[in-house]
Amino acid sequence: MAPGIVKLAPSILSADFARLGEQVAEAERAGADRIHIDVMDGHFVPNLSMGAPIVESLRRVTHLPLEAHLMISDPDLFLDEFAQAGSDLFLLHWEGNNNLHRTVQRGKALGKRVGVVINLATPASVLEEILPDLDQVLVMTVNPGFGHQHFIPTTLPKIRRVRRMIEEIKPGCDLEVDGGIDATTAPLVVNGGANILVAGSAIFGEGEGVGAAMERLRIAVNQEETSKIRKSKSG
Ligand code: DX5
Ligand code: ZN
């Protein structure tokens, strides 16, 4: 994986909502690759966050792809609304969805990219049959529902496993991670094979500002990418 291949997806959950457009613009100027929008319904996860109107507002102020991480009990009910609002990619949880294949196909029929998300206790093996239909897999590295949580290192073997499955079954499928990603944990997940990193508090929650926070994360990621390449050439 060449340096610069790993993408950063700032999660607006930790942004200052009174200045949301401004903060997203700052992230875009600082080289964000996409914007991650955490949608929570108070049932699927024990927290409430935002809905499609936020996507619609952001669509007007940024050119970046908008990915909707749907932490909601019945995503099928909301796909049309989020598609119309301007979402580019749906992230659908494996957990609690009895007809995930149908939900994935509905997302694709709306002309959107589709990813499946697996929680901490969900094994990588559940992805095997659905992987050929996916553009992306998201491995949660914290329990979903809240920002500012600590990265859970036992997810690293799972990230490696999913990377191997992707290479075998669906090369080109993106592997994203979400939760507790900062300049210390980013190199670990990049080493494990993640190529899209969601980061909320490490980007919007830092006193140093969005630009400086993005820069710090980018440097940590690039260093790891460079050392991975060196190791693969020498080994
Ligand atoms: C957690 C969300 C994350 C969250 C990440 O349920 O899915 O996207 O915003 O926040 P940090 O980066 O602060 O862990
Ligand atoms: Zn998320």
Q: Any overview of this molecule?
A:
- The protein has 8 helices and 8 strands; from the N terminus they run E-H-E-H-E-H-E-H-E-E-H-E-H-E-H-H.
- Helices cover 36% and strands 17% of the residues.
- With 235 residues, it is α/β, with parallel strands linked by helices.
- It has helices spanning 20-29, 52-59, 79-85, 100-109, 156-169, 186-192, 201-204, 210-234; strands at 7-10, 35-40, 66-71, 89-93, 113-118, 136-140, 174-178, 196-199.
- The chain is globular, with a radius of gyration of 17 Å.
- Zinc ion is lined by residues 11, 36, 38, 69, 178, 198.
Name the ligand types.
D-xylitol-5-phosphate, zinc ion
Structural class determined from secondary elements: alpha/beta
Number of strands: 8
Number of helices: 8
Name the helicity range.
25-40%
Mean pLDDT: 96
Query: How widely separated are the two ends?
Result: 15 Å
Lateral strand order in the biggest sheet: 1-8-7-6-5-4-3-2
Oligomer: single chain
Key descriptive features of the protein:
eight-stranded parallel sheet, 8 helices, 17% strand, binds D-xylitol-5-phosphate, single chain, binds zinc ion, alpha/beta, 235 residues
Concise synopsis of the structure shown:
This protein is of the alpha/beta class. Helices cover 36% and strands 17% of the residues. Helix 2 (52-59) runs parallel beside helix 3 (79-85).
Sequence-ordered SSE layout with sheet pairings:
Blueprint: E1 7-10, H1 20-29, E2 35-40, H2 52-59, E3 66-71, H3 79-85, E4 89-93, H4 100-109, E5 113-118, E6 136-140, H5 156-169, E7 174-178, H6 186-192, E8 196-199, H7 201-204, H8 210-234
Parallel strand pairs: 1-8, 2-3, 3-4, 4-5, 5-6, 6-7, 7-8
Helix pairs in contact: 2-3, 6-8
The structure holds D-xylitol-5-phosphate (DX5) and zinc ion.
